[in-house]
Amino acid sequence: MPIPHRMLAVLALLSFTATAAAAQTRDVAGSRDYPGIGRFTGSVITGYVTKDFDAARMQAAAFRDGQPADARRLEGRIFRIAYRTNPGPSILEVSRNFETQLAKAGFETLLACDTDACGAIPFTEAIDTLPVPQMWVDGFNYRYFAGRKTEGGRETYASVIVSQNNQDIYAQVTVAELGAIANKMVDAAAMAKGLGETGHIALYGIYFDTDKAVLKPESRPTLEQIAKLLTSQPQLNVFIVGHTDGQGAYEYNLDLSKRRAEAVAAELVKSFRIAQTRLRTAGVGLLAPVGSNATDAGRALNRRVELVAP
Predict the structure, then answer these.
(1) 304 DSSP β-pair partners
(2) Span of the secretion signal (predicted)?
(3) Contact yes or no for 89/132 (Cβ under 8 A)
(4) For residues 24 and 14, what is the distance between their CA atoms, to the nearest angstrom?
(5) What are the residues whose beta carbons fall under 8 Å from the beta carbon of 242, sequence distance 6 or more?
(6) N or C end of the chain: smaller count of CB under 10 Å?
(7) Are 129 and 137 spatial neighbours (Cβ–Cβ below 8 Å)?
(8) Count of Cβ atoms closer than 10 Å to residue 201 Cβ
(9) Residue 155 three-state SS
(10) Is the CB of residue 310 less than 8 Å from the CB of residue 236?
């Protein structure tokens, strides 16, 4: 029986993405291991997403009768890191190495299970994984681990899902550092006050994905407040200055911070009709930190956009 054209297209897409993933020999730009956990020897990072505040789904118990028995929605700083390891090791070997490392880092085991014991395919649909080809999960062959630790009053969860595709082993580490959302909204009045008193104001409500200079939709409330400030003070001109944390190369961060500042200015001109002549942009990369780049909290403070009075 001939294979339908749609099926051929799907097979071709899977073959292409598998080949592209297998060709990757370096970590994706801007990625890094989670401190204290690391990676299995010979792995490369295929997917990397961090959010200062997000939610992650983890399972703290195996499914019962096809349904979650202890599903947890965790809010705070979220790390999702996917790895690919060339053929050779087994799913169990890769998973056991991660589990051992997590135990050394202080995580107590909540759940450690293989395919059928976890809950088979429905279980994999109830956890967070990065999309193909960054991460592959075979619902018929995987291992899952979830753990928790409390240190200095801070609660952190970690999970690892390990599976296989075309003999390559894929693993995703998800870490949730629990915490309340920070109030990053700065209104037009606060911006005016900051510019008047100190000559600058840091804005943390402008969002970009890692290593990108494209504004995310959730940046709009802060952009609206900038526009409100500039509209209410027609004689006010400002510098828009981009800042990064200390991760990555100096020249790269300098360029990234400049492109992010330019993206803010471009959006103010396009969507809010602010005259381009009132906006000047600059990027200083990691040169003006307000926190320690040795800690996640410090790096979060350093990733910002500032308005600066001329």
Answers:
(1) 243
(2) 1-23
(3) no
(4) 16
(5) 256, 257, 258, 259, 260, 261, 264, 281, 282, 283, 284, 305
(6) N
(7) yes
(8) 23
(9) strand
(10) no
What token pair was written down for 235? Answer: 């004689």
The DSSP element (H or E) to which 117 belongs, if any, is helix 115-118
Confidence of residue 295 (pLDDT cuts 50, 70, 90): confident
pLDDT in tens, 184-226: 779 999 999 999 999 999 999 999 988 899 999 989 999 999 9
- How large a percentage of the chain has pLDDT more than 70? 92
Tokens of 257: 């911070």
How far is it, in rounded angstroms, from Cα 109 to Cα 126? 19
Cα distance between residue 81 and residue 175, in whole Å? 9
What pairs with residue 176 in β-bridges? 78, 157
- Per-state percent for the chain, helix, strand, coil, to nearest 5: 35, 30, 35
Kindly report the backbone phi and psi dihedral angles of residue 91, in degrees, each rounded to the nearest multiple of 5, phi listed first. Answer: -55, -45
- Could you read off the pLDDT of 227-276 as tens digits, one per residue? 999 999 999 999 999 999 998 899 999 999 999 999 999 999 999 999 99
